[in-house]
Amino acid sequence: xxxxxxxxxxxxxxxxxxxxxxxxxxxxxxxxxxxxxxxxxxxxxxxxxxxxxxxxxxxxxxxxxxxxxxxxxxxxxxxxxxxxxxxxxxxxxxxxxxxxxxx
Amino acid sequence: xxxxxxxxxxxxxxxxxxxxxxxxxxxxxxxxxxxxxxxxxxxxxxxxxxxxxxxxxxxxxxxxxxxxxxxxxxxxxxxxxxxxxxxxxxxxxxxxxxxxxxxxxxxxxxxxxxxxxxxxxxxxxxxxxxxxxxxxxxxxxxxxxxxxxxxxxxxxxx
Lengths: 103, 158
What we know:
The structure holds 2 protein chains of 2 kinds. Chain A has strands at residues 6-12, 15-21, 44-51, 54-61, 70-76, 83-90, 95-101. Chain A is mostly beta strands. In chain A, the strands form 2 sheets. Chain A has a 4-stranded antiparallel sheet, with no helix packed on it. A 3-stranded antiparallel sheet of chain A has the order 1-2-5, with no helix packed on it. In chain A, a hairpin with a 2-residue loop joins strand 3 (44-51) and strand 4. The radius of gyration of chain A is 15 Å and the shape is elongated. By secondary structure, chain B is an alpha+beta fold. In chain B, 20% of the residues lie in helices and 37% in strands. In chain B, strands 1, 3, 5, 6, 8 and 9 form a 6-stranded mixed sheet that branches. The chains are: A mainly beta, B alpha+beta. At the A-B interface, strand 3, strand 4 and strand 5 of A face helix 1, helix 2, strand 4, strand 6 and strand 7 of B.
């Protein structure tokens, strides 16, 4: 299982700003190891962020997202104390779910 | 497509299904899977026109309503290039980020549901100095903005 994500959700006026830092190699499939063998691609493909059971952002990613992916966005309708849940699934089918409380 | 993916994510059954597939030999571990809700065709494209086509559009029109923020003119490290995209076009449904000279152009597609601001930022890898495209789908039409980012050290090599 991959390391936990760092999620910060803060209420600013009417919108909630969500900042997520995931822990993932995001291997492109372009690099070669010391023996000259290609390192297979291994990257997060799907990300879904939900608030109160409703999807507030859904993403599909390719290999070009940087290692330890960062993501920031804002949505309306959040309140202090609500939970924001982030899920990712990578190209090996590994999955990680973490949540944060809106502050 | 979206609805199915959300159901998979919500129920967690995606993992169960994949485990099952792996167990029965349909999927070999370590191989890239043709994931449910992952647009393989779009991520395999090598030109902006092809990407727009794979996403179900005709052509992308340049539009001043699509702007970049936090995006450098010169990136010292191609492995981590911050890209922020804002769309002021009403009815924005999705934002995609493309890097023209990467081995695969499409970096990310974000679906923006109603209530979420059509403005987000992330970090991408860039192989070399290239144009970056922000592709916005609004009301079924595609719009694009272009920015050149110079890279002093590429982020895709060994």
